[in-house]
From TrEMBL:
This is Gustatory receptor. Keywords: Cell membrane, Membrane, Receptor, Transducer, Transmembrane, Transmembrane helix. GO terms for cellular component: plasma membrane. It holds the Pfam family Trehalose_recp. The keyword NAD does not apply. Plays a role in the sugar gustatory response. It is found in: Cell membrane. It comes from the Eukaryota. Belongs to the insect chemoreceptor superfamily. Gustatory receptor (GR) family. Gr5a subfamily. GO terms for molecular function: sweet taste receptor activity. One of its GO terms (biological process) is signal transduction. It is a multi-pass membrane protein. The chain crosses the membrane at residues 119-140, 152-169, 204-228, 273-293, 367-388, 435-455. It comes from Drosophila willistoni (Fruit fly).
Length: 469
């Protein structure tokens, strides 16, 4: 009996041990399974989280691209929107250091002295001033001839232009805010084509003028390279010879180094752009002012043959007076730039026409000279026409008033007509002259007069090559 009980106890113990072992093994397996699935779930959560981040970032990129396309191809027709690319390019070359130019709203514009673009502009102005000072000393003490005076006039005018644009930058936010107030009161532009027309026109003017300026500068470089190859300043150092020749008047006083040579070329590039940008800016402002007068004139022309009221013509007259006052505000801000623009062009046209009588030593110099002269003449002529278009559009209401039927003629229209007839709305050159169509004939007459005088003093029949004394 005891043996049986012992065997039963042993059997029960073995079963208990087996059960415990099985339970422990199952527990371990279950733990491993739980650990595996928790690890898989964690990895899956990380992957999902990464995927969500990627999708979220990609949605931001797509939204930005959609936003960019919408902003790029949707126009509100404002002047601030149209002039934006012109000012962006200007700031690359240290002109017009105004903040907020990328905005479509004039209220975002401001000028501050504590700005990187302001510091950049001031450094370039100082560089132009130092260059002009050295050239004054060179002309008065070393060499006085037509070429040296021409170089002095070029850099001296660039120094004055950069100062004028810096001064304009301080006034520009107030000018554009006044412009936006006047624009908001004008009859709205109905079609998208009308709203983007001004921006596209200013972009085309800027693009064509900048490309022509670039071609002119490249041709000038080719002409200089030809001279350097034949007459190297430093033997076997063509780059140094080229850089030295760009600023030879300055290197008469200071020692040439690689750094100073590169700095001189940078100043030369900045001054070349400033010389061309002067005309581009006046053209852009003239086109924009003429467009605002045209906007009001088109509105009046559409309503002229229809039944109109006195209130309609009162509102039109108020808008016209606002545009006239805006033209005065803009002229007060940019009249010095306009004067520098026309006087500069007049001087260099006379100088280049005088040199056209001389034989050129190379084909590259001939191509550069005639391209530069034709470009300068065309640029001045187009500038004169664009500037005169403001006055043309301001006189156009006189033609529109003739379309009004007799039964709708009123005293307000008579006052409006007399006001348009008596006023002369136009940009000026520091109040010395008004930019009307007559100025084109005046400029042409002045060029011919001065050319006849200069030809009497012209003794050079050929541009000297380096081998000729």
């Amino acid at each position: 009996m005891s043996v049986v009980n012992f065997n039963m106890a042993r059997t029960i113990g073995q079963e208990t041990t087996t059960t415990t072992t099985i339970t422990t093994t199952a527990s371990r397996t279950k733990h491993r399974r739980v650990h595996f699935w928790s690890k898989s779930r964690i990895d899956s959560d990380v992957s999902l989280e990464t995927l969500r981040k990627v999708r979220w970032q990609w949605s931001k990129v797509k939204a930005f691209l959609r936003h960019g396309r919408h902003e790029d191809y949707t126009y509100n027709g404002s002047f601030q929107e149209a002039i934006k690319p012109v000012l962006i390019i200007a700031q690359i070359f240290a002109l017009m250091p105004v903040r907020g130019i990328s905005s479509r709203f004039a209220d975002d514009l401001n000028f501050t002295w504590w700005s990187l673009r302001t510091f950049y502009a001031m450094v370039v102005i100082v560089a132009f001033g130092i260059t002009s000072g050295y050239l004054v000393v060179f002309v008065t003490n070393v060499q006085f001839n037509f070429d040296s005076v021409e170089t002095l006039i070029f850099y001296g005018s660039i120094f004055l232009i950069s100062l004028a644009f810096f001064q304009l930058a301080r006034k520009w936010p107030a000018v554009v805010q006044e412009w936006q107030i006047v624009e908001d009161k004008l009859p709205p532009l109905r079609l998208g084509k009308q709203r983007r027309q001004l921006a596209h026109k200013i972009k085309m003017i800027t693009l064509v003028a900048t490309m022509c300026s670039l071609v002119e500068h490249l041709l000038s470089m080719l002409s200089t390279i030809y001279f350097v190859n034949g007459c190297p300043i430093f033997p076997n150092r063509p780059i140094d010879s080229y850089l030295y020749l760009n600023f030879s008047s300055i290197f008469h006083f200071i020692e040439y180094t690689d750094f100073m040579g590169i700095l001189g070329k940078v100043i030369n590039i900045l001054s070349t752009f400033a010389w061309n940008f002067n005309d581009i800016f006046v053209m852009a402002v003239s086109v924009a002012l003429a467009a605002r007068f045209r906007q009001l004139n088109d509105h009046m022309e559409r309503a002229a043959k229809l039944p109109t009221t006195v209130e309609h013509w009162i509102q039109c007259r108020i808008n016209f007076r606002n545009l006239c006052k805006l033209c005065e505000v803009v002229d007060d801000a940019i009249s010095s730039i306009t004067l520098l623009c026309f006087s500069n062009n007049l001087y260099f046209i006379c100088g280049k026409i005088l040199k056209s009588m001389q034989k050129k030593p190379s084909a590259s110099q001939t191509v550069y000279f005639w391209f530069s002269l034709i470009y300068l003449l065309g640029r001045t002529f187009i500038l004169s026409l664009y500037s005169a278009s403001i006055n043309d559009e301001s006189k156009r209401p006189l033609q529109i008033f003739r379309l009004v039927p007799r039964e709708y003629w009123c005293t307000e229209l008579k006052r409006f007509s007399e006001e348009v007839h008596m006023d002369t709305v136009a940009l000026t050159g520091l109040k010395f002259f008004r930019l009307t169509r007559g100025v084109v004939i005046s400029v042409a007459g002045t060029i011919v007069t001065y050319e006849l005088i200069l030809l009497q003093f012209n003794k050079d029949d050929k541009v000297m090559d380096c081998y000729e004394e």
